[in-house]
Design goal:
Number of helices of chain B: 24
CATH class of the largest domain in chain C: Alpha Beta
Helix content of chain B: 40-55%
Radius of gyration of chain B: 26 Å
CATH superfamily of the largest domain in chain C: NagB/RpiA/CoA transferase-like
Shape of chain C: globular
Number of domains of chain C: 2
Number of domains of chain B: 3
Distance between the termini of chain C: 65 Å
Largest interface: B-C, 102 and 79 residues
Distance between the termini of chain B: 70 Å
Number of strands of chain C: 12
Structural class of chain C: alpha/beta
CATH architecture of the largest domain in chain B: 3-Layer(aba) Sandwich
Helix content of chain C: 25-40%
Oligomer: heterotrimer
Chain lengths: ~260, ~475, ~240
């Protein structure tokens, strides 16, 4: 396991960023992880991917299992607190670290302040690029029209709305075509989608229809969970829209198979 | 007598709701109507955010001093000539109402729209006591004809289509000429207006809820658009207000602030048509108004909320914005919740009032999209409070065993990075040969997902492993 | 179980004590008693206004114009009248234009009763509260609020509350000088009046004619209350 102290090459002057890939990217979509790393490096940072990362604990936290959520939170704090920044290619997992860990660990004398400190330097990927590193343009090409879905946690807990759109607008060849109600939930909701599959399906059915109605060829969003839900519905409904994580498009890695396509 | 709670069958209710063509047609109006009207009203008032912050502060202050405000309200209401009755439970409230009705020999009572009345099951109770309750809000009247409960806290009949209303009217208003055209809402409204006008004039007692109880003046306030609440309280000899204890607001300035956020959040109106402040019974020389005014103040579990993390829920001013913006409510409507209060506010309130063991589905049936909190005029952190219910559910072992063990396994691995790496490596390798198409149309244990959508295939090797191999 | 020997008054006292006991216990952690009492006394006596939207903070004719604009936006109709003397003819004209019988009910308000009704002799005037069969009634507003085009009507012999809700057409007279910018200004006036005569039993804030959207979210006027609200603004702002 690489230690953060070594990873950044101390004294290089470049911020050292711990990339928290999220469990879904780790297991389902490594391309997104590599795209995120490329963007962070291009923004002038050194990137490390600590091997001891697992999951942010959201499934436990949102299912009422506070004790497991706390244990996972402590472990994430320990793994990532040595970095200058923690960057997460997911609004929902970033919000778990930055908005919910401080509340979860508030009563833990050994961790309360450390959780606050971690929260203060944790950012969702596009917010990190745009708000922290001041990147407003990327060097990337992507031919075609793209529609952007505002994943709920990123939008409402972290105010991510302008950043990905501005960055997408700078991609050569890309046309941003807004869908109706891009800020309406896709029905994923973590464990919600398997616990209440019929309701989730009703919500994502509507979402898939509005995505298709936008006329865009590609659906882009900042959260893999939502993307898998929408991509899975679009393909089941036989719609031609492809789905990608926003990082892939911004990192000029939008050529490979889209989510759910054969490799 | 207890209320009929169908929340334990929430999942089945939801499946039925999704298959109900009339309901789905009716629900489309919620999404189209309320959301855009609210946004337009908010955009038209630059001070809206500042007013929301103040509205929240007013409620927080009042709740933190509720004992003192209750004392002061009681004193001022008595001074104005009203009688104040306290009710610890729903049964106490029903009895208090019945005692008044019996004493004045009431045969018919007209009713303004009141969620408290629904919460305590007042209509069924009055009927069992040989008193005829007549709902006068058009939406409430419609659902009373249909033998239903409200499916929305401000638009009780939002689940009904106009052709269903027509059929109900023809069934009940038997004097109707079959030739008369009732296909348009306006003709339905005229019919209801004519039918209810007689009831208003004949009623012995009028029962309304209250949007606010003003401590400074001892007044009750109702906010309506139809005028039915006013006819209910000025025409009969006796006016009974039923309200829960968190309705108190210190003074008229505070009410003004709350009014500025209430209608905008609810229907997108700047102000509802009728906002009525009633203070005691009619005065000497008054030509109209009730001779007696009674105010029944209901606790029913709220004092316990005051003591714990659910106190924030007591800020609720019942605007309905949370359900108007809820994707789950849009999908299934209100009846599936099965516990009087519906949507996000119901998912937090119902467990506190009716017990978590009956209602645990409700706080779980949320994607936590947070849109409810973002439009709440008094800043109630609805997702957070729903999560607290899930925590209590988990602590009390109320979760189904399969769900619990699945989550436990995941948490077990997530807490052990080395084991997690090993397990995911084995898992990914095992799945890899089956995912060549890039997605699964079916996968064991993932039926909840793959029944309705494809599952993108996992990677052959995890990102972390690939990253390590690269560097 | 409460036995039959427990009187109604005792039952009431028990219920009251139970509720207060629970609320007080729930708030036991809220701090020192006297400070809390002082906070409540202050809040109830100082009547401090919260944020008041800038919209209504205009004077004179602009305020009247805003009032009219907001009232019309919610489907009220507004007519400017130079002097109260002109009202009888204006009312007659309204009834004629709406094809209504020449009949009108009003309360004992001297500002209405003493108008030169002989100028419109065809109008049959009725007085007192409504029996539910009046097509048109006339009230005098206590005040108006420009911010939302809202009328304040107060109960009493002068302007019975039933006149506000039972007719098909509600005609309301308001002096331009009685239009305030915001609700807070009207509450201050009502408080001043309450010092002398007590707060009226009913204060109606009326913003447009009655409506319902309970059937398929279709907005319809005249649900139970008036289908039409016609406001005569008298004089200059």
């Amino acid at each position: 396991m690489s230690s953060p102290e070594i990873a950044g090459g101390k004294g290089s002057g470049r911020p050292r960023v711990g990339l928290f890939a999220t469990c879904l990217v780790d297991l389902f979509r490594p391309e997104t992880g590599f795209a995120a790393a490329r963007l962070i490096e291009a923004a002038g940072c050194d990137v490390d991917v600590p091997e001891s990362q697992t999951c942010c604990g959201q499934p436990a936290y949102n299912s009422g299992d506070r004790e497991d959520a706390k244990a996972i939170a402590r472990q994430v704090v320990e793994t990532f607190e040595g970095f200058d920044y923690v960057v997460v290619p997911s609004g929902s997992c970033a919000a778990t670290l930055s908005r919910h860990y401080p509340e979860l660990l508030a009563d833990d004398p050994a961790f309360a302040r450390r959780a606050e400190a971690l929260a203060a330097k944790t950012f969702e990927l596009t917010a990190f690029l745009y708000d922290v590193m001041g990147i407003t343009k990327v060097k990337a090409r992507f031919a075609g029209s793209v529609t952007y879905h505002d994943a709920c946690s990123g939008l409402r807990e972290l105010s991510i709305q302008k950043q990905p759109r501005e960055l997408l607008q700078s991609v050569e060849g890309l046309t941003l075509t807004e869908m109706t109600d891009p800020d309406v939930c896709c029905g994923f909701g973590g464990t919600f989608c398997v616990k209440y599959p019929e309701i989730s399906n009703a919500i994502v059915t509507k979402k898939a229809a509005t995505i298709a109605a936008s006329g865009a060829e590609t659906l882009v969003a900042g959260d893999l969970g939502c993307l898998m839900n929408m991509a899975g519905k679009l393909s089941r409904d036989g719609r031609k829209v492809r789905a990608r994580h926003v990082a892939e498009v911004l990192a000029d890695m939008g050529e490979g198979p889209a989510i759910g396509e054969a490799k | 007598m207890s209320l009929h709670i169908t929340s334990p069958a929430f999942k089945e209710n939801a499946v039925d709701a999704l298959a109900n063509v009339d309901l789905q047609q009716a629900l489309a109006h919620v999404e189209r109507g309320f959301i855009h009207k609210r946004q337009a009203a908010v955009d038209a008032l630059p001070e809206f955010e500042a007013l929301r912050r103040e509205a929240k502060a007013i409620k927080d202050h009042t709740l933190a001093h509720l004992d003192l405000y209750l004392e002061a309200f009681e004193e001022n209401a008595l001074k104005a000539g009203a009688e104040v009755h306290f009710a610890e439970t729903a049964e106490d409230a029903r009895q208090a109402v019945l005692e008044i009705c019996r004493r004045v020999g009431a045969k018919t009572v007209t009713k303004g729209k009141s969620m408290i009345s629904e919460e305590i099951g007042l209509n069924t109770f009055l009927e069992a006591s040989d008193i005829v309750p007549v709902e006068t809000d058009l939406g409430e009247y419609i659902i009373q004809l249909r033998g239903e409960t409200p499916s929305h806290i401000i638009a009780p009949a939002v689940h009904v289509t106009r052709s269903q209303v027509e059929a109900d009217f023809r069934r009940v208003h038997t004097h109707l000429d079959p030739e008369r055209d009732l296909t348009e809402p306006v003709s339905l409204l005229s019919e209801a207006r004519a039918a209810l006008r007689e009831k208003f004039l004949a009623a012995d007692v009028g029962i309304t809820g209250a949007n606010f109880l003003v401590v400074e003046t001892g007044s009750s306030v109702i906010v309506t658009n139809e005028g039915n609440g006013d006819l209910t309280q000025i025409l009969p000899r006796v006016h009974i207000v039923i309200a829960s204890l968190e309705k108190l607001v210190p003074n008229l300035e505070d009410v003004s602030t709350l009014l500025r956020v209430l209608a905008r959040s609810a229907t997108g109106q700047e102000m509802s048509v009728y906002t009525t402040f009633s203070t005691g019974p009619r005065r000497p020389g008054d030509p109209d108004g009730p001779e007696e005014t009674h105010i029944v103040i209901l606790d029913n579990g709220r004092s316990e909320m005051l003591a714990d993390e659910y106190r924030e829920m007591l800020r609720c001013i019942r605007c309905g914005a949370c359900m108007n913006h809820c994707p789950v409510y849009h999908a299934i409507g209100g009846h599936a919740y099965g516990a009087t209060y519906v949507g996000p506010m119901g998912a937090v309130l119902a467990p506190a009032l009716f017990g978590l063991e009956h209602t645990a589905n409700l706080p779980n049936a949320s994607t936590f999209c947070g849109r409810c909190e973002s439009v709440c005029p008094v800043g109630i952190p609805l997702p957070k409070l729903m999560r607290h219910w899930r925590e209590r559910e988990y602590e009390r072992h109320l979760k189904p065993a399969t769900e619990r063990s699945g989550l436990a396994l995941w948490a077990f691995l997530a807490r052990r990075p080395k084991l997690y790496r090993l397990a995911t490596r084995i898992g990914l390798a095992a799945l890899s040969p089956f995912g060549r198409k890039g997605r699964f149309a079916w996968l064991p244990l993932a039926g909840g997902w793959t029944r309705h959508r494809d599952l993108p295939a996992p990677a052959a090797k995890s990102f972390v492993a690939q990253w390590k191999a690269r560097s | 179980m409460e036995g039959p020997l427990v009187s109604a008054a005792e039952r009431e006292d028990r219920r009251r004590a139970a509720v207060f006991g629970k609320v007080r216990r729930a708030l036991a952690g809220e701090g020192e008693g006297e400070a809390r009492r002082e906070a409540v006394r202050e809040r109830l006596s100082r009547h401090k206004a919260n944020v008041i939207p800038a919209r209504g903070q205009v004077d004179g004719e602009s305020r009247v114009a805003l009032f009219a604009e907001m009232a019309e936006k919610v489907s009220a109709t507004v007519e400017r009248i130079a002097s109260p003397e002109d009202l009888p003819e204006a009312v007659a004209e309204y009834l004629r234009a709406k094809n209504l019988p020449s009949a009108l009910r009003m309360g004992a308000d001297a500002r209405l009763r003493d108008l030169p009704w002989q100028k419109a002799p065809q109008i049959e005037l009725k007085h007192g509260p409504s029996d539910g069969h009046d097509l048109a009634t006339l009230s005098h507003a206590f005040a108006g609020v420009a911010e939302t085009g809202t009328l304040y009507l107060v109960s009493g012999e002068d302007n019975p509350t039933s006149l506000n809700f039972l007719p098909e057409h509600h005609l309301v007279v308001i002096a331009a000088s009685d239009i305030a910018g915001d609700y807070e200004a009207v509450w201050a006036e009502l408080r001043a009046r309450a010092e002398k005569e007590g707060l009226p039993r009913t204060v109606n804030l009326i913003t447009g004619p009655s409506r319902s959207a309970d059937i398929e979210q279709t907005l319809l006027l005249g649900a139970h209350g008036p289908r039409a609200l016609h406001i005569f603004v008298v004089g200059k702002g």
